[in-house]
């Protein structure tokens, strides 16, 4: 793998469904994260804004240095109690037995709608 570093890279996709643009300034969990402290901050923010009622991995596959997982979340926002759910795909890339990259793909429109409500 080219360019592998010891600092993990974390990226979750911005929502595009329903023409709703959002960036980190609007929804605090969106955007790229680099390094252990930034990934730790991501999980702190998630735990502050949402309460998960479901986190399920339906399938997972491996190919060389990657693990692909398909699943779904269900949660409620703490600020307004709005509930929502969506399917996701997670891709983990490994180097020397450590996660060096994470990508998440999902239709974030339910989260955006609930957050903006």
Summarize the structure.
The protein is of the alpha+beta class and 117 residues long. It has helices at residues 36-49, 109-116; strands at residues 9-12, 31-34, 50-63, 66-77, 83-95, 98-106. It has one domain (9-116): Nuclear Transport Factor 2, Chain: A, CATH 3.10.450.
Notable characteristics:
single chain; 117 residues; alpha+beta; Nuclear Transport Factor 2, Chain: A; 2 helices; globular; disordered N terminus
Descriptive account of the structure:
By secondary structure, this protein is of the alpha+beta class. It has one domain: Nuclear Transport Factor 2, Chain: A, CATH 3.10.450. 19% of the residues lie in helices and 48% in strands. It has a 6-stranded mixed beta sheet. A hairpin with a 2-residue loop joins β3 (50-63) and β4. The longest helix is centred in the middle third of the chain and has 14 residues, at 36-49. The radius of gyration is 15 Å and the shape is globular. The protein starts with 8 loop residues before the first strand and ends with a helix.
Structural class label: alpha+beta
Count the DSSP helices. Answer: 2
Provide the residue-averaged pLDDT.
82
| SS strand fraction | over 45%
What's the level 1 CATH class?
Answer: Alpha Beta
Portion of residues within helices: 10-25%
Globular, elongated, flat, extended or rod-shaped: what is the shape? globular
Low confidence ranges: 1-5, 15-22
Spatial separation of the terminal alpha carbons: 42 Å
Question: Main sheet?
Answer: 6 strands, mixed
Number of individual domains: 1
Side-by-side strand order of the widest sheet:
2-1-6-5-4-3
Q: What is the CATH architecture annotation?
A: Roll
SSE pattern: EEHEEEEH
